[in-house]
Each structure stands twice: as C-alpha cells, then as structure tokens.
Design a protein that fits this description.
There is one protein chain. This protein is α+β, with helices and mostly antiparallel strands. 44% of the residues lie in helices and 27% in strands. The protein is built from eight helices and twelve strands. A six-stranded antiparallel sheet has the order 2-1-6-5-4-3. The chain starts with 6 loop residues before the first strand and ends in a 7-residue tail after the last helix.
Amino acid sequence: ALRAPGVKYALILDRDQMVRADTSMTHVGTRYPALSGGSYLQERQGFKVYRAIDAAGNGLLDLQVPIMALADTPIRIGEIHLGLSEALIQQNIQDMRLHLLGLTLLALILGGIGAAILAGMMVGPITALVEGVRAIGGGNLEQHINLKRNDELGVLTDAFNDMAVSLRDKEFIKSTFERYMSKPLAEQILQQRDKLQLGGEVREVTVLFSDIRRFTSLAEQLPPEQVVEMLNHYFTRMIDVVTSHEGMVDKLMGDSVMALFGAPISLGDDPLRAIRCALKMQKAGIRFNHEQEAKGLPALPMGIGINTGSVVAGNIGSSTKMEYTVIGDEVNIAARMQGIAQPGEVLISENTYRMVEDAIHVT
C-alpha cells in the first residue's frame, strides 16, 4: 500500500481493535489508539472517512473499511485502516482544476475560432451587400455580388442582383427618354408622371417642323453611307438644340425634324422657347454648313415652320407598338409653313405671333 502515492499507512484490526498487520511492525499486537483531534466526514454502511491532523500538522484522511465474515449472517471480524495525505488529494484536485481550466480555455479558443469563421461567412456577404447598396445609392448601378448560397443570405443576394439589374434597365430607359428631350424636362415628366394621361387629350402645343432644302437631289449625288453619316451629324446638332430649349423631339422623318413644346408637359412659355429654338437651329445650321463646305461636302440649308394651337396629344398605336405624338389641323399648318419657308427662314403662324408679339421682332 505504501507504494501508492499519498498513502501514509495501512493496517488491519481484529474485532477487538487489536493490530494484526501494519506497515510498522512495532504496532502489531497492540491496541489501535482511537483517533482524536478530528471528525468524521462521511459514514455509510460501515465505511467511514475520518479527518485528522498528523504530528507535522498536515491534514490526514483515515479510511475505515469493515471486514465481514461470509456466513448466513455476515459477522464483522475486523476492519482496515488506510491513511491518505490530504495534501496529495488537494494537489490532485488542484491539478484537476487546472486541467479543467485548460480544457475550458481551449474550448473558448476553439469556439472563438469557430465563431470567427462563422462570422466571416455571415459578415462577408452582409458587408458586400451593404457596400453594394451604398454604391447604388451613390449612382453606380453596375453592381453584382457573386455569392452562391442556399440560405437566406443567398436569397437576399439574388434579390439584390435582380434589383441592380432592374435599376440599370430603368436608368437605361430614363437615359433613352432624355435623348428625346432635355434632361430637366425628362425629370419633370418623371416627377409628374401622375399627370400624364394614357390615350389622347386636347392640349395647346407649339409644333416645330424643320426640313433640309433640296436634300433629295443632294442625296442622289452621294454614296448612301456618306448620306447617312452626314444626316447623323446634322441631326445630332439639331436635337441638341431642341433638348437645350426643353423641347421634345417627336420624330425624325427622312431629313425633317418634328419637335413639340408644351407636350407632354407645358412649361408656360412654350411658343417663345420654340422660336428661340428655331433661331438657334438656324445658327447651328450655318456653322454646320461651314464645316460641310470646308470638307468639300454640300451645304444643308433648312427651313423651319412653327404653329401653336389645340391638338390631340397622346399615345397612338396598338397594344404592342405605340408612340407619343400629336395630331390635328394645327400640326398640318406647322408642316405646311415649313414647306414654304425659304432656306434660312423661320416662319411662325398668327396664333404663335399673338402669344409672343411683345418679346420678338418679326418681318
């Protein structure tokens, strides 16, 4: 027994408390002295644990185990005493505590690493979504998050990508819309879209027609590719002038431009803006023709006609193809006035003149 760590003594007593065997042979045959200076910590079915203090002042646990004779009725014939060092037990308990503390710290570290990995898996996509939303809020719609997941974050990412595509499509529609009219007018129409009516409505509109004189004969003298290129340069200048005066290019017809002022939304000074636009178009045409002549190409003089009156404005066509335009006698008058305008002239109708006579000089 002494070979086991922490065992101070071991002995066997008979029923009369006489020592029959002991780690110290000098005690054999003597009566076992009763323990004192301590207390029983536990007693159960004859097994006892007594805590005492040895001569050196160290704690000692005396384990007492009964010895029973095997018979029909068990008879107690003695007991075993085993002395254990309490310091060793406390040391083992301390070692166990340190071991448990180490395991706890290891578990916390591993848990922290696992939590960091899990957080990275969650925070990364969320951060990407936040940055994407901020970028879209800043006007950068070219956003796409590559994330393939089957959880809620994957669903949210797919929804974000669909939203970005939808916003890009709407921005494309808006930018295309702005090609036909000035940006301020386009924004005003978008802001007041509830005022726009589908179908037809009677509106007072100023209609502007411009047409290149003798263009058919000029076009027959040039290759088709050169004619198209020349027209594109010409229309670019004219459309820029129309949009800068908050007008709407209704349509391009061959070498003619039809522009509207007051539809789909009136800005209050539509006739005056149409006249200013026409004068600016003629000036832009003069500069364009100087460039044409410098390149050895024919000039493209144009005539412009303007009329103001009540027309039917709205979406005309079918359920699959429609366009916003205006129809009525006042439109035909503007077209006829353009037809009789000489190169470089701007002809306005009496209706238009009455609305702007205090602001312009006419012949």
